[in-house]
Amino acid sequence: MKQAKGLHKWLLGHFLPISLLIISYLSGWPFFEGLHFSEFTLVVLSFSALIYISYKSKDSAPCNNTFLKVWIIYIIFQLIIGLFYINNYYVARMYLRNSLTLLCCYSIYLFSYPKYLFQCLHTWYKYFIPIFVICVIPVAIPETYFHFLIPLYIGLILIRALPFKHQVLILIVAIFFMGGLLSRSNLIKIIIFSIIGYVTYSKYITKKIAKLICAFLISCPLLLFILGISGVFNVFDMESYMGNYDVEMSYTSEGEERGRSMIKDTRTFVYAELLESTIENDSWLLGRHPSRGYTSIKYQDELDENSGMFNTERMNVEVGILGIYLWTGIIGYLIYSAFFFNTIFSSINRTNNHYILSLAIALSFIYAFSFVEFTCAPHIMYIMTFIYLGICNSKAFLNMSNDEFKIFIKKIFSFKS
After folding, report:
1. What's the CA gap between 54 and 70, in Å, rounded?
2. I want to staple 296 with a disulfide (CB 3.0 to 4.6 A). Which of 86, 159, 314, 368 is the partner?
3. How far apart are CA 105 and CA 72, in angstroms?
4. Where is pLDDT greater, at 165 or 40?
């Protein structure tokens, strides 16, 4: 019994937070896609730890979302079907990666417990500064800095809950990276989360106003998608209505800099190829399952280099919502969206504190931006999204008062044990 409690404490206090550190560190490396063994090992071990912790916990889970249960059941169905399509090593490897990506939603149950979330994040924040100075700064790749600091987003979203000195520190870090990063998506995320953190915690942002903001953010990508496929207006074709602009820096697998226009359209062809592929393969309803990808002419050279003669389909999708649609079909997309919508609006209706409103609005932005980015992969941004979903689905967090929630966030950022 004592050994079980010791393992339970070690998993929560050390293993999971350090796993988050490693995943966030590797997420920023330009050659991270090639580190499949490390990626698989970390996610498998972390996921096993989550199952163990949830099973051993004596407390009933604070999260009881019906849509989440339906989503998990549907994912299991997809995993079983996907097994029958594995015919070589490359497909098996990507099946494992994509399956673990989809199953990461199980972590919502863990993160809905305040004590578990505190132990994970508090340990992370205690260790991240020395690791950042020793391991990350010497690399001198802006993308590595950015991804490693993604867990600080929760500090931006809930910045009004922190003491003034912590607010200043987080803002300095955010401004520093805004000046050093030329990636448009990273800049957008930092700016939006900063605005959410400061503007939404206000007496003028009532529950009714918060729901209107969330509804607007959620409906925007859906409206733009309809306008795009109808040929009326393509939001991704920025050069047609903005002209040319500065360069966005990206990196090759060797870490070398390369530039491209910050307004270059890098998404229209992804949508076109993926949608055409699912329609041609008659997989638009149930998806192509985690073991299959989509036919891509644009990335054919990349496919030839990575998989040789093993596979002619592209498994990775830069657009998060397209990844969900590719693997689970329109049925999976509807269940996934229903879970997001239910979490957002239910948390606003049920919460006793104002900070949940900020997280609900942030989740609405994440859902909207998943039509542009937020790759579905065992990536630190993907995992942090489930932390936000865990908080917004937790009865314990929803029942907290403003003062109780504020104390909880302060303790996370404290360096005291």
Report:
1. 18
2. 314
3. 8
4. 165
